[in-house]
Amino acid sequence: MANGAIERGASFLDDVAAKRIADAMDAQAQPSEVGLICATDLKPEAISWLWGGWLAAGKMHVLGGAPGTGKTTISMGLAATVTTGGRWPDGTRATAGNVLIWSGEDDPADTLIPRLALSGADLSRAYFIADIREGNERRSFDPARDMEALRRKVADIGGVRLLIVDPVVSAIAGDSHKNAEVRRGLQPLVDLASSMRCALLGITHFSKGTGGRDPVERLTGSLAFGALARVVMVAAKHQTEGEDGRTVRLFCRAKSNIGPDDGGFEYDLHQAELDAHPGVFASSVLWGDAVEGAARELLATADATGDDSEGGTLADAKRFLADLLADGPIPAKAIRADADGAGYSWATIRRAKEALHIEPVKQGMKGGWVWRMPWQESAKVLKNSEDAQQKEVSTFEESEHLQTLSDGVEVEI
């Protein structure tokens, strides 16, 4: 009896296994079926923007630039704005949310967290992707293997509005110069951002020797980085200083498939010590005026270095400036116009300014910048360079000028 029951049971299991195998074979034999969605079944939706025209929910973005332009500092500034619901560079208000950061280059404790703190971030809303634990072992996060685990964590956190990957090439397990491998490596991150409705921002560098080319083509690695991104932003700094003596930096929009693809903002990098942590120093981004124009032209201006062979010798430029400023300070814009007319490059004029120790001075809250010789602290500002060329006139002439007495008091004669 017992043996018969065992035999019947074994036979039943064999039948079940055989049936499963047969069903699997039948399923494989069936042709694949493509799913189609009729356009009338879908409702048109507007792009959901974190920052209008710049950062979109569920989309991939790339921020590129040369070393030293502060790309990571900019990304931490953007992250800080999200965590606090602060103001974007154009003055619009962000919706507060959480930020997730995956960094393969900078240590969170000594670099990223100080930058977030200096930028005024709500650190309770900032999270970093750490190692993966498997039993008693740890290994680095791998988007190809660990995306589902990350998805569960993101869902647990809730409210993640921005995902930063720095550098974005960290997501590529294969050759970052091959389109297929780049797309395969980035797709899990793109899918995660889409499903979680958060903006994905990847940080990357410019390739060497690409000055003057389209900014999207300057991104290091495969063109797939720029192709997959819906918005590409770039950061650059001028090779020469601004009229106030500071380095001019530009943050521009180089490409957008979902909005405007030009314009940008000036910015500067600020170094300071954290008040709550003496001895810990960090950098933050300070946003400036909006700028107009295409990124390619804006970057071409920033990349221009100029040299004496393009606009006269340094000695000639020094004599030109000394003669121009001999009778008093002149607005920097007027000097630039005269220099262009005389055939001097602005880079050469800037070097001549440094050699002569000429000082840029701001004229009041609404006034522009003027240049003056070191000994002209109390001299009257001339409206243009033509005033500097006028000679002294007698007291009988109709056109009179202000002259400065030795005690620095201006009188009219």
Count of discrete structural domains:
2
Radius of gyration: 31 Å
Question: How are the strands of the biggest sheet laid out side by side?
Answer: 5-4-8-9-3-10-11-12-13
CATH superfamily placement of the largest domain: P-loop containing nucleotide triphosphate hydrolases
Secondary-structure element order, N to C: HEEEHEHEEEHEHEHEEEEHHEHHEEHEE
- Indicate the percent of residues in helices: 25-40%
Which CATH first-tier class of the largest domain would you pick?
Alpha Beta
What can you tell me about this protein's structure?
Helix 4 packs parallel to helix 5 (179-196). Helix content is 33%, strand content 24%. The radius of gyration is 31 Å and the shape is elongated. Residues 305-312 and 383-413 have low confidence and may be disordered. It has two domains: 49-303, Rossmann fold, CATH 3.40.50; 308-412, no CATH class. It has 413 residues and is of the alpha/beta class.
Descriptive key words:
413 residues, alpha/beta, Rossmann fold, 2 domains, 18 strands, disordered C terminus
Quick structural summary:
This protein is of the alpha/beta class and 413 residues long. Helices cover 33% and strands 24% of the residues.
